[in-house]
Design brief:
Blueprint lengths: L12 H7 L10 E3 L14 E5 L4 E5 L24 H30 L4
Parallel strand pairs: 1-2
Antiparallel strand pairs: 2-3
Length: 118
Amino acid sequence: MTRSLKKGPFIDPKLLKKISGKNTQTEPMIKTWSRDSQISPEMVGFLFGVYNGKTHLEVRVTEDMVGHRLGEFSPTKKFLRHGGRMQKELEMKKKESEIAAAAAAKAEIAPASAAPKK
C-alpha cells in the first residue's frame, strides 16, 4: 500500500471534511469505510468506526498511529482456533490439570480450617 512521495499521503476528502473544525471530546464515533486512508496528525484523539466488512470497529487514534492506515487497526478476519482431534485432546488435558490444581488447593485449605482453635 505504498504511495509515491510526490503524490503525498492519501486521506479521503470526505473524512477530512467530517473532522474539520470538530472537537475530539464532544464528537461521537465517526463512521468510515475508507480503510486505505492514512492517519494524519489532525486525526489524533478522534474515535473512528472503521468498517471491517461486517461491522464498524472502534479505533481511537493516538500519536503512535500517525502514518499508518485506518484499516490496519480493524482486522477483517476473526481467528477462532486451530481445530482437529489433537487440539481437542490438548484442551481436555489442560482442563483436567486445572481441575486437579483447584482440588489440590481446596484440600490444602480444608485441613487448615479444621484445626482446633485454642
